[in-house]
Amino acid sequence: MSATNTAQRVPVEERLFSLVLALLATEAGLTKNEILSTVQGYRQRYSISGDNSNLERQFERDKDDIRELGVPLETLETPGQAGNNQSLRYRIPRGDYELPADISFSPEETTLLNLAAMVWREGSLSGESRRAILKLRSLGVASVDPVLGYAPRLRVRDAAFDPLSTALDKDVVVRFGYLKSGEQVSRTRTVAPIALIQHDGRWMLHGEDLDAGGTRNFLLRRIVTPVTTTNTKSPPVDKSAATSRALAELEQIWEERRATVEVEPDSDAATRLGKRRGTAHEGANSLTLHYSDLDLLADELAGYGPEVVVSAPPELRDAVRSRLARTAADHG
Predict the structure, then answer these.
(1) What CATH number belongs to 161-250?
(2) CA 88 to CA 82: how far, in whole Å?
(3) Which of 83, 176, 216, 231 is the most buried (most CB within 10 A)?
(4) pLDDT tens sequence across 47-68
């Protein structure tokens, strides 16, 4: 058995933290190959001449995770190699990650922060992380001491969030193109917004569909055109009560819908899916998952590749299989 297979699995949290440290440690950025071969959590399973496709998929998911946490991850093209994905470089700009310049502290506060930073630095920067930074330097990657301060802020990846929030403040009707799962062409929706709600980690617009009649939930990631604000006022509604009803309905759907999957032991899928809210462990490698949207779950499960096999329900298994087949066809 190879060292790659026997390597001890690194916790997801430690891998993400090590990735952030590495991307902060260089101004020029790191290529995907440099990250996978040096950063704690990836390097243990990296193969110099073998197949690293599973590891690359894990890195893609990790990029989304740290961006969701508000970390300003940038992608840079190498001069003279535009369009070459293998030469893309990733970095976290220090200026966007550090505290704003207009924040100041008293001498007493500064002393306490310095003491806390010393304890945090020694406790958080593990030996593995230190060795990774040293290895990056040995490869000729210019690095600086990683910044451990963090300025939390709300970040929303969906471009529709801000204009919808403005429309809610003004109580006006909006229009946008919405692409339902499984359809090839989007359809324009005219909606009176009621609330922006978050359920199961996803943002949705709860509103009254003025064309179809009745309230609907619109997943922000499926809004495919800019949101247009009209001059038409939204009908009066008790937004608080409507929001509570919408969330209760979503929670009931989530509770009723269950999927059974088999996961590869000690894989990224086993770790991530095993920590999902409501997940039940039915056996050594069998998990029961709750979900509210079959297509979204199918997208997620297909991303794990061979690490997951869907046992039930049949429609979820078929949806995952079709996504994998489409991916295989797209890549020849």
Answers:
(1) 2.30.30
(2) 9
(3) 176
(4) 888 888 889 999 999 998 888 8
